[in-house]
Amino acid sequence: MKISKAEKIGNVILTVFMLVIAFVCLYPLIYVFSASISSVEDVLKGTVVLLPKNVTFAAYKKVFENPMIGTGYLNAIYYTVVGTLIQLFVTTLGAYPLSKPRLKGRRIINFMVVFSMWFSGGMIPTYLTLVDYGMVNNRWGILLGFACTAYNVIILRTFFTSVPMELEEAARIDGAGHWRTLWQIYLPLSKAAYATLALMYGIGRWNGYVWAMILLNKEELQPLQVILKKIIVDTTFGGATGGSGADSVVNYSEQMIVYAVIVVSTLPMLVAYPFVQKYFKKGMMLGSVKG
Amino acid sequence: MRQQKSLIAGVRSTLRYDGALYLMLVPFIIWYLMFVYRPMGGLVIAFQDYNLFEGIGGSQWVGLKNFKEFIGGPYFARTFKNTAVIGILTMLFCYPAPIILALLINEIKNSKIKSVIQTSTFIPFFVSAVVVAGIVTNMLSPSTGIVNAILEKLTGERIYFLSEAKYFRPIYIMMTMWQNCGYNAILYLSALSAIDPQLYEACIIDGGGKMRQILHVTLPGILPTITITLITSLGGILSVGYETIILLYQPSTYETADVLSTYMYRTGIQEGNYGIASAVTIFNSIISLVFVTGANYISRKVSETSLW
Fold first, then answer.
1. Confidence band of B5 (pLDDT split at 50, 70, 90)
2. ipTM for the whole complex
3. Which chain A residue shows the shortest CA-CA distance from B139?
4. Do B269 and A127 touch (CB under 8 A)?
5. H-type helices in A99-138, by residue range?
6. Which CATH architecture has domain A71-288?
7. Which residue intervals of A37-66 are DSSP H helices?
């Protein structure tokens, strides 16, 4: 097939245009990173536009000296790891049986799951329920209260349905029960699905702040995002909303800390992505064959 | 006789074998009942003068009082209008953007450049709402932000973007688009990659140019996906979330920024007015349900694609 000259030029223009779009998407993050390692004066004067000026790691030093951020970091790791594992477990408990067409009562349970996608109690009743269960200021509230989402159950169920029945039958003849079949056949076959779910759940855990903010008032229990919200939002809005940031003196080096904190909190997610990327793209396609 | 016996034995062993399936479902169903359906039932407090110490059983039933108070109150018009406007703007800008992005990415021939562009547009999805709010407030800050530093050089003026009501919606839309566009494009890209290349070849042999290929092969190929996402987005048009808005709005921008869900958050969590907040939730859910059902109905009539 011959490619005409006009088409070649068109391709070049398109590629350049798309690279510009890619740059625009990355720019805010590049800027924050550059600002976080530049000197305060340069950032305030606005001379840092793309690349850092007068590189210094002073802001990072302050961030790591702050005990609140350290605690928040450890808590965030805890909630992300334990929370995601619980979510994967509960999602599997639902998805595996529901992928068996012979299961009795399958339609009712399916409906129970799907209905919650369109209609839910929402924040207030959920909060009051968790208060009733004594799950305020308690790590279990945040871990158990949000142990699975309907959409992910459906994705995993769809994936399990595509595993050939013969494999299950062969395992059964070899004397394996459902738990073993699940563990030794379904799990290894569903790496892409699990990588996708783990990433989605993990992002939700690491980035979520609303429920942690509502349920956890004790500082030693709060994850990073809640601490971040106090530093970032309450500092920058300290003046506007009537001084909610009583404990934070607003000064300009504070802003540098904000930039550094943003980098420190966002990095783990960006670092995790390349590792699951290969599975993730495969897994995302499952979303398009919703059932 | 013997055959019958073995059949019964077979049924029995299947029951024993499948028992594990039901065992797995037990904790799953209990979890759903405890953490999804019990809160759903908890919405009845919208019809109560709810008192935290009396609980649902002890609180007084007041019928539609909370609904009347909300709909007759001063905030109804404002929050409803803002929800509708923000929802429609999101629909107009943030819904088509990932489709266009996917079509453009799909046209890039060099696979390395393609994956670089896809990853770059996708990365903002990993950034948390708190951090996005932090980036926006800092970059737009009137005293120290880069945007105002540039603006001052160009026009000699500085603008406090986040405290002026007229800037809130554009900021919100741009922010939402930045965060989700690349992520939502993945779905369309996977639909695009599923199109049979032979269709393009046939189109080229018939003398079809780039535009004809897009119109007659590409778009019809991803139409089912577009229809599904369109129904979902139309259904969600009035469920504008509070997560990012409560981080960015302030009393001076409530006029354009305060939506149903943020109002629900303020009255419920911050003021402890659970009855009214639940009434707002029910109101919002019912409207959304009507929208989803309506969009689904129309789509089934027009294109035979539907969610159920």
1. low
2. 0.86
3. A28
4. yes
5. 106-118, 123-132
6. Orthogonal Bundle (1.10)
7. 40-45, 58-65
